Amino acid sequence: MLLSDNTGGIDCNPAALAMLGLSDKTQLIGRRPSEFSPPTQPDGVSSDDKSRALGQQTLSEGALTFDWVHQKPDGGLVPVEVSVRHALLDGRRVSVVAWRDQSRRLELERERAAIQERLDLAQKMEAVGQLAGGVAHDFNNLLAAIRTAVELARDGLPVEAAGRTDLDVALSTADRASRLTRQLLAFSRQQPRAVEHVDLGALVRDMTPLFRTSVPPSVQLLVQSDPPSPAWVLADRSQLEQVVLNLVLNARDAMPQGGTLAVKVHRDDQRLHVALEVADSGIGIDEATRSRIFEPFFSTKPLGTGSGLGLSVVYGVVTQAGGTIRVDSMPGKGTVMRVAFPLATAEVTNRQTPTSTLAVPAHALLLVDDDDAVRRTTRRLLERHGWSVVEAANDEEALQHFHEQRDQLSILLTDVRMPIMDGVQLARRVRQIDPGFPLVFFSGYDELDADDLTALSRVPVLAKPFAANELLTTLQRALMAAS
Question: Whole-angstrom distance between the N-terminal and C-terminal Cα of the chain?
Fold first, then answer.
C-alpha cells in the first residue's frame, strides 16, 4: 500500500517495498512509476507513455484499477494489479495506491492452460480413436475373410504349384495390412492385448542388440536398464516392445549427423511407477510440432518415409496400460521422451505350454459371426482340419443350436461385436446353461473389459485376422483348460 500527498510526503507498506525489491520508502520519492518498470509493458506500449495515460485517466475518473508489470533493481519482473484512488485528506489531495502481486495467479492460469491443452488433446485423440477403432474393426473382418480364403486356396495346391508363390505374396500383404490396422487399434486403445507382468528393464536389455543394429555408427548408444529390483509393469509385451522401438527409432532419425542416444529404465518405489526415458542430442522439436506430435498421421518426415502413426501408437499403448508420456524438447537442444507406467507387483506363475499338435475333436464346434464371409471361410478352414462345424449368424440361431445339439457341441467360437446380443451376452447365456462350457471369442478389436473376462473365467480372445495355426492352437488351449 502506498499513500502519497503528491508533494513528496509518502508512506508505504513494507510488503509493497519488498515486492518492488526496494529497501526504503525514500527510494520512491520524486520518481515516476515507469522508472520501476521495464521499457515496455506486455501490450508493447512504452511504460512511460502508458503510465502518463493511466495517470490522466485516474485524475479524471477519481479511481482506476489496471494490470501492470514492475521491474525490480535486479531485473526481475513482477506482474501486479494496481488500484489507484484520489482523495482529499485534511484539505490535501492524496493518492492511495494498492499493489497486489499477481505472480501466483498467472502461474495458476498457465497451469490451467496446460491442463486444458492436455484435456483437449485427450478428447481429440479419443474422438479420432473411436473413428479409427470402428474402421479397423470392419477392415479386420474383411482381412479375416480374405486371409483365410487365400490360406485355404494355397494349402489346397500342390507344394510345387506355381500359384502358391502368388498366394504367399497375398498372405504376406494381408499380414502387412493387419499390422497397419493393429497400429490404428493401438492408437485407439482397442487392440486385443495379452496383458502380463513384464519386467521393463529386462525387456529393454533383451532389445539392446536390436537397438545396436538399428542405429548407425555415428550414433553413440547408451543403455541403462538395470534397476536394483525388477521394474514390473502390467501390459502387453509385444506392445511394450513396439513403444520402446518406436521411441528409439524416432530418436535415431532426429540425429542425421550423429549424436548420443540414451535409453534408461528407472523404478521409483516412492511414487510407485516405472520410468522409461529415451533421450537424443538431435535437432529438437519446436512448440508447434510438440503440440501435434501424438496426432495420428501427423509427421515431419518426407512424404513416403513414414505413416505418421508411430507416436500416436505409442500414446495409445502407454495410456491403455495406465501410463503417461511427456516430451521435453527445444530446437537444437535434443529431445527427451519420458514414459511412466504404474509399478505392478510381481506375479509368479507356472505356465504350461500346450502341445503344438491339435487332436481332432469328436464333437462339433458352434461358430457364431454375423459376417457371412468370415463365417464361411472360418468354417472351411476348421472342416479342413477335421472339425465338424455348426454355423449361426446371430444369437438367436446360436442359442437354438446350443439347446438342440448341446450333447454334440464341444466348444463355442463367437464374434464379440454383433447386433442385438453381443458375444459376451451370448457367452453368459451359454454359461448359465452349462457353467463349464468351453468358449473362445474372436474379434476385430478388443471390446472386453476386465470384469467380463473375470466373470467368464478369462475366455481367450483371438484377434482378427488370424492364421490357421493361431485359431487351432487357441481352440486347443480352451479345450485343455476345460478338461
Answer: 84
DSSP state of 176: H
Say what the alpha-carbon torsion angle 470, 473, 475, 480 is, to the nearest 10 degrees.
-160
Domain range summary for the chain, segments of one domain joined by +: 2-101, 112-188, 195-342, 364-482
Select from 3.40.50.620, 3.40.630.30, 3.30.450.20, 1.10.3720.10 the CATH code of 2-101.
3.30.450.20
What b/e sequence results for 139-174 when a residue is b if at least 16 CB atoms lie within 10 Å of its CB, and e otherwise? bbbbbbbbbbbbbeebeeeeeeeeebeebeebbeeb
The reply to whether CATH 3.40.50.620 applies to domain 112-188 is no
360-400 pLDDT, tens digit each: 454 689 999 998 999 999 999 999 888 999 999 998 899 99
Task: State whether the Cα torsion 361-367-371-376 is positive or negative.
Answer: positive
Q: Over the stretch 250-305, which tens digit does the pLDDT of each residue have?
A: 899 999 999 999 999 999 888 899 999 999 999 998 887 777 777 765 566 554 44
364-482 has which CATH code?
A: 3.40.50.2300
Average pLDDT in the chain? 80
Q: Do the Cβ atoms of 82 and 2 come closer than 8 Å?
A: no
Cα(213)–Cα(430) distance, rounded to whole angstroms? Answer: 51
**What is d(CA 24, CA 81) in angstroms, rounded to the nearest whole number?**
21
Q: Are 15 and 50 in contact (CB under 8 A)?
A: no
CA atoms of 52 and 57, how far apart (whole Å): 9
Find out whether 105 and 120 touch, Cβ atoms under 8 Å.
no
Per-residue pLDDT tens for 326-345?
A: 999 889 889 999 999 999 87
CATH superfamily for domain 195-342: Histidine kinase-like ATPase, C-terminal domain (3.30.565.10)
88 pLDDT band (50/70/90 cuts)? confident
Asked if 195-342 and 364-482 have one fold, the answer is no
State how far the Cα of 2 lies from the Cα of 16, in Å rounded to an integer.
8
Residue keyed to cell 495406465: 322
Q: What is the pLDDT of residue 86?
A: 78
Using the structure block, give the residue that is written with the C-alpha cell 502481486.
Answer: 101
Q: Categorise residue 295: left if φ over 0, alpha if ψ from -120 to 50, beta otherwise.
A: beta
